[in-house]
Amino acid sequence: SLLAQIEQVYHGFSDASAPTKVAAIAAAAHVISERPSRGSSFIPLIQKCITVESTLDNPKAASLGLLAMRDMAMNEVLDPVKALKIVLKSFDNPIDVPRPARKMYLGLLGSVSRSVSSRKGHATVEKAIGILRRAILEQQPHATKKFSCLSWDEVDQAAAALCEFEVSHVLRIEFSAPSEHEGFDEEKVRLAAIEEQVMAFVSELLLI
Fold first, then answer.
1. What angle is formed at CA 160 by the lines to CA 207 and CA 57, rounded to 5 degrees?
2. Contact by Cβ (8 Å): 45, 35
3. Burial degree of 112 (CB within 10 A; 0-12, 13-18, 19+)
């Protein structure tokens, strides 16, 4: 059976060839895309494919592993926050992710958009939004930074992932800050500060 063949690749992962690993994770990703509920059977193989060593050695397999993780997270088979935490322990900057896996990495960041209200997931959501914002504003292609920037396709993927979050959540997480004005209406001061920072953020976007 397919599951038995994939388990065979998993158990002999260190000795399997790169094409064999890609074929196995591609088959798993296809099954997951059709029936996400079956994804739990393939988690051990996915974890093997997305380690730092495996990602650098076989980014195509890592890309498919990240795609499978996103499909499961979006269909509540995996906890998106826990899934993203695993990936962020290995890579917290898209520049460090091999290019073949980079768009899937950026796409996975958007999977935590439904976890904004979770207290436990707040730090991870905040980190995901920060990574996506920097990708859009600071890592776009530039003639003098040929080897330390994203491609426009990757910037577009980052923007699409950021759009999965509600605007109010992005602004609250990215721009809210403790009030330094004692004795004043703290809420009014906070909102005024957010408005000022939002306008600066919009101006930055318009200059891209």
1. 105
2. no
3. buried
Beta carbons of 104 and 143 less than 8 angstroms apart? no
pTM reported for the whole predicted model: 0.78
Integer Cα distance of 109 and 88 in angstroms: 9
For 26-84, the DSSP string reads: HHHHHHHHH-GGGGGGGHHHHHHHTSHHHHHH-HHHHHHHHHHHHHHHHTTSS-HHHHH
Yes or no: say if 149 and 141 are a contact pair by the CB < 8 Å rule: yes
- Give 2's contacts (C-beta < 8 A, 6+ positions apart): 27, 31
Q: What is the pLDDT of residues 41-89, one digit of tens each?
A: 899 999 999 999 999 999 999 999 999 999 999 998 999 999 999 999 9
